[in-house]
Amino acid sequence: MRDITAPESARWRRFVDVFERTVSAAGYELVIPPLLEDIGVFTRLGEATDVVTKEMYDFVDKGERHVALRPEQTASICRSFVEHRPTTPFKAWYSGPNFRYEKPQRGRYRQFDQVGIEVLGSLDPYVDIEVIHLGWIFFKKLGLQQIELAVNSLGEPENRTAYVAALKSYFNDRLADLSPESQQTLEKNPLRVLDSKRPQDSDVIAGAPMINSFWSAEAAAHFDTVCNGLTSLGVPFSIDLKLVRGLDYYRGTTFEFRGGTLDSAQNALGGGGRYDGLVADLGGPDTPGVGFAIGLDRTLLACDDEGTFPSPPDAADVFVVDVGDGIDALLICAELRAAGIRTERSWDNRSMKAQMKAANRSGARFAVLIGEDERLAGIALLRDLRSDAEQVSVARTELQATLISRLSSLQGAE
Ligand code: AMP
Questions:
Q1: Cβ(173)–Cβ(186) under 8 Å?
Q2: Closest Cα partner for 332 from 362, 367, 383, 361?
Q3: Which one, 30, 109, 177, 298, has the greatest CB density within 10 A?
Q4: Whether residue 343 sits in one domain with residue 227
Q5: Helix H or strand E segment including 374
Q6: How far is the CA of 210 from the centre of ligand 1 (A)?
């Protein structure tokens, strides 16, 4: 776990802002679930996922409740849906930290933030298309060019069950050729063997049965509509029949956004799909769902690689240099800040030279200089810190209006 400090912290805030603008334009509402839930909320995600079995931060609290820090937020959104029963289709977005006891490495941490959306209550393939498209638009808004979208379908639950059985038997026949890790995965969740990036497994995986031969006519038609919709929107994608998602609840459409500049073992920036049964299992009515989660860390690494979405500039507009007793700086700062001008000052009665140095370091465009003489004359000196330190005298009563007009004409020129 780590601190996110400035200027990266400002970039995180902007990341969530861009996401919020993208999804609220499509009518998604913010849900803020708690960080801590009853462990049952997450164990329902499936005993076959590492996220649940190995990586959860769980403990018994002082009231003898077995609780867990959320490892993801889909289950929390579904639990919240069951509790509040909003009308369907229910369209929610979220952002915030999750916790997984994983081996920390570049782009993978034990506390990490995700943004995501979920739509509960509709089986319409156009919902799948909307969800995928919103993810796509978001990456484009960040300025990312090298995003690869992979889509697949796990078919209907019966198709998936038949496919899992076929996979199991196929892999069991070739057990000795699989890596020891994949042999273990096979016992718990045969689908996840397809996720293995270990070279030893690649030949066996290449020959494995493919899900499309198990799709029902309805599942195939649904997937066709999704693919056609994406094509109509001009969203490029590839069909990856080996794309399975971690959770037992996934069925139908699955998809993943990959960063073209990242190493293939760590290139998933986000992903999602349709899930069923989760809402019912949490005590609600039978309700289909579809959504995605996007990780901040890896997405920002992709932005770094592509030289896009930099940290926002962190500079003051104005720095007040008070060589008197400090009361003028106090009042001028209060006045300018109330007018929305980012204003800084120094403390501890520092010398004029030291204050000017701080002003330059702050990145402020203007310095306001004031001392006894200026106060008595009812003026302040306004110095442009970049334009050859041009300095003018301004009536104290005109200071705010002058700064607003100078700053806005600079902004206009940018
Ligand atoms: P998942 O919830 O496992 O489907 O992951 C969705 C996305 O969240 C991934 O593609 C990553 O971008 C991000 N993610 C998952 N686990 C971590 C982690 N431990 N640290 C940072 N990002 C993560």
A1: no
A2: 367
A3: 298
A4: no
A5: helix 372-377
A6: 26
State the pLDDT at residue 238. 98
Question: Is residue 131 included in any domain, yes or no?
Answer: yes
Tokens 């299992």 belong to 281
Output DSSP code: residue 213: G
b/e 5-31 (16+ beta carbons within 10 angstroms → b) = eeeeeebbeebeebbeebbeeeebeeb
Please determine, for residue 245, whether its predicted confidence score (pLDDT) is greater than 80.
no
Q: How much distance in Å is there from the Cα of 139 to the middle of ligand 1?
A: 16
End-to-end CA distance of the chain: 39
- Give the C-alpha separation, 332 to 281, whole Å: 60
How many percent of the chain have pLDDT more than 70? 99
pLDDT digits (tens, 9 = 90+) for 27-43: 999 999 999 999 999 98
Give the model's confidence band at 48: pLDDT under 50 very low, under 70 low, under 90 confident, else very high: low
| C-alpha distances out from residue 153 to 245, 250, 262, Å | 10, 9, 25
Instruction: Identify the CA nearest to 90 among candidates 312, 291, 252.
Output: 291
Q: Is residue 312 part of a domain?
A: no
Statement to judge: residues 32 and 112 lie in one domain:
yes
User: Are residues 249 and 379 both part of a single domain?
Assistant: no
Please check the confidence at residue 270 and state whether its pLDDT lies above 70: yes
Residue nearest to atom 5 of ligand 1 (CA): 270
The residue among 197 and 11 whose pLDDT is bigger is: 11
User: Which helix (H) or strand (E) segment is 205 a member of?
Assistant: helix 199-206
Confidence of residue 265 (pLDDT cuts 50, 70, 90): confident
Burial tier of 234 (Cβ tally within 10 Å: 0-12, 13-18, 19+): exposed
The reply to whether 242 falls in a domain is yes
Cβ-contact 294, 115 below 8 angstroms: yes
- Asked if the model's pLDDT at residue 145 lies above 80, the reply is yes
Pocket around ligand 1 at a 6 A CB cut-off = 72, 100, 102, 107-109, 112, 114, 246, 268-271, 293, 295, 297-298
pLDDT at 105 over 70: yes
Atom of ligand 1 nearest to the CA of 294: 7
